[in-house]
Write a structure and sequence with these properties.
Length: 136
Amino acid sequence: MEVTIRHLGDVKFEANARGHRVICDQPPGNGGADSGMTPPEYLLVSLGTCAGFYAAQYLKTRSLPFGDLDVKVSAEKATQPARLGQFRIEVTAPGLDPQHQAGVLRAVKACLIHNTLIHEPAIETVVNTPVEAHVG
């Protein structure tokens, strides 16, 4: 799995994956033009859509209605170091009995992004500084 990011100027970036493109920007107060979501908002999007996918799959495989499925994700900032310190995933799936509510909860907690955030991943950071060839 790979995503490529290209700087578009100021604090605006374009992310590309498998031919899909999204813009990431900052609000005017952070020097941006607000032409896209911020990186923390994309993290919430990733968590929420993953949770929604797992919930929908649970409901679909049990022939339960999933057309009114909604997911809301919120986070609170923490400091030292700066990060998102607490997440809340709220899944709304009307008409479920307690057994299937518990099943949806288990399914959402099995989401790839949820598990990635729960179990600290290893992150390798590399800075490349290619030297351009000079024609003389």
